[in-house]
Each structure stands twice: as structure tokens, then as C-alpha cells.
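Working notes for the structural subgroup meeting. M.R. asked for a predicted model of this chain before we commit to crystallization trials. I am recording the input and output together here so anyone reviewing the notebook later can reproduce the run.

Input as submitted:
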Amino acid sequence: MARAGVKVQKPGAEPPLGRKDWIDAAIAMLAGDNVEALRVDTLAEKLGVTKGSFYWHFKGREDLLFAVLDEWRLRMTSEVQSLIFDRSGTPWDRLERLVRIAISSRADVPGGPFEITLRDWARRDPKVAEVVRAVDAERIAFAAQLYREAGLSEADAQDYAEAHLAMVIGIRMTLADSESREEIKRRRRISTALLLPRGRAAKG
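Returned structure, recorded in C-alpha cell form:
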């Protein structure tokens, strides 16, 4: 007999899916296609459930899309910042970690396939464009903070921070999913050489 207040799943019932399950599935789909291709029925089919689970968590497709956008904002700002500061090291070590996070084979990294889809969406939706601009501004501010801590002047820190965002996104956008581990390492070396001016900071 079930205890009071404890829900028992009926035999043959669908496995319960949480809000995050739907968001993660949408992110995976958007990493390989455009926003217009995201359909609730297609997503439900990929998850092996009916659409009833979806409407338990979301009002509709647009609600899901903006939940996905919020998740991207979180990953690109506070989560990345936590990853940078969770480990000890010098400011240069933190900046190098920021490069490593971006230039990897994951689809949801800065500049990866998922972000490319969101930026394409932002070109056609002012609300999305506003979020993307706000996230970029926060990412630049964070990188500038790291450059200042590494010893660069305020002006140089800002310049390098903006170059950092542009380069890691650009170099990741041109990195195919099939690229080898060695190619990823090579691109990290290029980025590190251009974005981590240790000698210049020491002279300053």
C-alpha cells in the first residue's frame, strides 16, 4: 500500500520528465538546427513521451524557447564565472581556463552550434537580441575584470576583453564538430598566444 502523500507511477505510465529535461532536449535540438525547426511534437517524440508532459511545465513553444534563452544566459555568465573561480591559480590561469572552456568540442560552449542558432534567432527577434547584447556585455565585463587583475590597464583590459569574446566565438564557429582533439589544441594555442599578453602586462 502506498503511503499517504506519495505518488505511485502506474504500470506502463510515461517516465516523469522535469522542466530541465525539456530544456536540455531543446538545447540539443537547437545545436543542430534553427529555431523554426523546434516543434513540441518532434521534441516529445525524441524524448519518447506524449505532449502532455510538456504542457505540465510550459504554456507553449514560445515559453520553452525563452526558458532555453534563460538557460543559455545562465551558462554563459554565472556558470562560466563559477567554473573559472572554483579552482585556484593566477589571473592568467583563469584567463587561460576561459579560453579552454570556449574552444572545445561541446555544442553548448561560447560560440558553439547552440549559440550560433541563438544569434541567428536574435537577428530576427528584438527581444532575443536584447538578451544576447546583455549577455555579451556581462561576458566582456567579466573578462575585463580578469585582465585588470592580471595587471593590464583599464583601457587595455577593455580592449582585450572585447577581442577575447570576438575571437573565442569566431574561432569556435569555424571549428567543425568532426575536428580532432589535436586541431582543438592547436586553436587553443593560437588563442592563448593572441589573448594572453603576459609580457605586456609585466612591462606595465
